[in-house]
Give the backbone structure.
Amino acid sequence: MNQADIDALAGGGAGQRAPDLAELGAGVAGTAEVPLAMLMDLTLPLSIELGRTRMTVQDILRLGRGSVVQLERLAGEPIDLYVADRRFAEGEVVVLGEHFGVRITRIISSVQLPEGVS
């Protein structure tokens, strides 16, 4: 089967033309910039990862109160903070009274923000 056969089966061909999308207008995808203030109320999931490990189902079923799970990280290494499944920062675990918290020690900058946006 060659490309012409595939085009014929898909309803395409040499005479097919692209759809006219002019009625949709420029929309936000045009050159207009979206104000950053529109994103300030957006809620995103935040995950904190202390470490990872691999275990068989049999080993998981043996876990109980007081079980210790060895992670791939060493004590004292920074933990990772993820925003919407993207690594965003590193931090350290802190204890505040009877609660645990995370102190952010480094923001991971993988995307360059436009000037004036911080």
Observations:
- The two ends are 54 Å apart (CA to CA).
- The chain is about 10% helix and 25% strand.
